Structures are given as C-alpha cells and as structure tokens.
Amino acid sequence: MGFMHLKPQTHSTVITYAIVIVAFIVVTLLDGMGLISNSLSGQLVPICAYVSLAVSLNLVVGVSGELSLGHAGFMSVGAFTGVIVAGCLARMGVESELLLFAGSAVVGAVVAGIVGFLVGIPVMRLRGDYLAIVTLAFGEIIKNLLNNFYIGVDDAGLHFSMTDSSSLGMSQGTILINGPKGAVGIDKISTFVLGVVVVLITVAVVLNLMHSRDGRAIMAVRDNRIAAESVGINTTKYRLIAFTVASALAGMAGVLYAMNYSTVIPSQFDFNQSILILVYVVLGGMGNISGSIISAAFLTVLPEVLRPINNYRMLIYAVVLILVMVVPHTKVYQRAADALRERFHKAAPKPAAEGGEADE
Fold first, then answer.
1. Keywords, A to Z (predicted)?
2. What are the residues whose beta carbons fall under 8 Å from the beta carbon of 326, sequence distance 6 or more?
3. What is the pTM of this model?
4. pLDDT computed for residue 202 by the predictor
5. Do 254 and 56 form a contact (C-beta atoms < 8 A)?
6. What is the DSSP letter of 4?
7. I need a surface site. Which of 223, 228, 263, 331 has the fewest CB within 10 A?
8. pLDDT at residue 116 in the model
C-alpha cells in the first residue's frame, strides 16, 4: 500500500513526524558542515522549546476550542521546578547531564500538570473572554510569586524564604532561585538532540490524545457543547483533561528552555510570552499540529535571519505576520492550494470488477 493510500489521519500523523525528523537531519548536517552561524546555532534549543509550547497550546486553543492566555505561566512553573530539581540532584552527586535533564523534565512536567489541574478545576467552568482573563491573571500571579521566592540547597536540604536570600539560613549552600534575579548559576545541559526528543514526545502525546476516544470527546465539546452534553459527555471533565495535559507539556518545554541559559528571570515568562506562543498557534492553524511546528520554527528563526538588517528586521517581521494572516484567505491562494491538493491527493483508480455485470 502506497503512502497516498493511507487513511487521512495516518497520512497527517506521518507527515507531522516526518517534518520533525527531516528538520533534525538537515540541521545536523548543515551544522556539521559549518553552514549555521553561531547566533543561529544558539537558537536551536529555544526553537524546540517554542515548537513544544505551540503544539501543547494548540491542544487547548485548537483542539479544545478554549482561549488560554497563561501558557507562559505553566512554562515558568516547569522551568523553575526543573532548576530546583537539577540543583538538588547535582548536590546529591548526580553527574550525568542526561539524568539531570530527564529528572528535571519529568518533575517539571508533573508539577506544571498538577498546577494546571488545580487551576483548571474552577477555570474550566468558564468560557470565552472570562476564561482568557482568568488564565491571563494566573500567569501574572505566578510571575509575581516567583519574584518573591528565595530557594537554596545545602547538605541539610532545601531552604525556602520569601524575604531575602540571607534569611535562608544556609551553611555553604547554593542559591537556586534568588527572587527577582531569578534562577542563577544554571548548568547549561539542554542540547538540540534533547530538544528534538522533547518535541517528539509532545507531538506523540498530543496526536495520540487527539486520535483517542477522549480526544474525540474533546472535539465534540468544542464543536457543539449542548449536543455533547445531550449524549452524556462530561464537558468540564474533557476540557480539564486537555488543559492539564497542555500544562504538563508546557512545563517540560519550560525545563528545556531554562536549562539552555545560565540565568532565567521570572519577567521572561510574562503576558507577552503567552501572546507570542498564541501567535504561533494562530498562524500555524487551529488544530493543525504540523502547522504549529512550522510556524513556531519559522517565526523564531526569522528575527535572527534578519539581524544583518537590524534597522528594518522588526518591520519585516511584522509585514510577514500580516501576510501570513491575509494571504491564505485570498482567492488566488485558495485556488492554488486546491489545485495542489487535487494533484497530490488524486483518488486511487478503482480495481476492475471481477466478471461482467448481470444483464437486466
């Protein structure tokens, strides 16, 4: 059976995984040949983090049909949790960077998922603008809380304070989170390979959920809530599932992002960060996972590519955003897209029927 004869669902899934794998191979080859600049090479891990964030947010915005403006809040929960876990493991003598990252990513995802579940219990009873406002408020609350957290570790264990670092009472310990200064002295253990692994895990979780029974229930709630309730679907439950899974995946992406820098501050995870992730989802297409991957990667790379023309790069970036939003709705683009679909998705020729048809 050829590739074009696959079911549409399988066809779309294969293309999504292929985009990630082919991109990884191409970037690795180009980097090995020295064709990628140092500035662009430094953006590879953030690109993977933003791709994971866009795919996970698409689960809420595109698949579930809810507008969430606090995704950066869950990202920050995972990021700072990962820093604490990595610091504790390093203090315990764990030297393997792979184990440090794996432990931090798992704990960061779990903690962010728990926070998402607790926030989602009241939030998922809201809809529309009210839901957007509450999630926005949550993101700002998390940012302000992190500005007042002082956490350190020594041989006696973790120390916590909301006053200042001197009140931690440590003896020859290490400060992990230093209030408004954020997480300091982070070991940079994130790599492009780990970033691609995080992206593949995120894509696998989201696609498997979308294609499962729960995923079909989530989309039924999105399409017609009243009809879904009439057949016995618990709308709050399935919306909460999507919200919690997306929060956990955002936490894991936050760990990847934080472990790529020596210092991370809470103000990096503000409202603008949530809007940026939402832009990736909208431009890639609601519910379109492969579109989110492409848009997040392209729009993250674009400012760096345009850096040689620094005076005009943000102007060009804005023009590109406008064109991406406007062009797909033009008749010329739609006709071209329809022609391509007809060319590459022609129906397979039906096999000839065995024997002749019976005479009437």
1. Cell membrane, Membrane, Transmembrane, Transmembrane helix
2. none
3. 0.87
4. 96
5. no
6. G
7. 331
8. 93
Residues 6+ apart with CB under 8 A from 195: 44, 45, 47, 48, 49, 256
CB count in 10 Å sphere of residue 36: 17
Bridge partner residues of 160 (DSSP) = 151
CB 58 within 8 A of CB 287: yes
Q: For 353, list phi and psi in degrees, rounded to 5.
A: -70, 140
The pLDDT tens digits for 194-220 are 999 999 999 999 999 999 999 999 999
Do residues 293 and 284 touch, judged by C-beta distance below 8 A? yes
Phi/psi region, residue 266 (left: phi>0; alpha: psi -120 to 50; beta: rest), is alpha
Distance CA(113)–CA(115), nearest Å, equals 5
Dihedral of alpha carbons 99, 23, 6, 288, sign: positive
pLDDT at 203: 95
CA torsion sign for 126, 129, 134, 136 is positive
pLDDT for residue 348: 44
Residue recorded with tokens 């302000």: 144
> How many C-beta atoms lie closer than 10 Å to residue 186's C-beta?
21
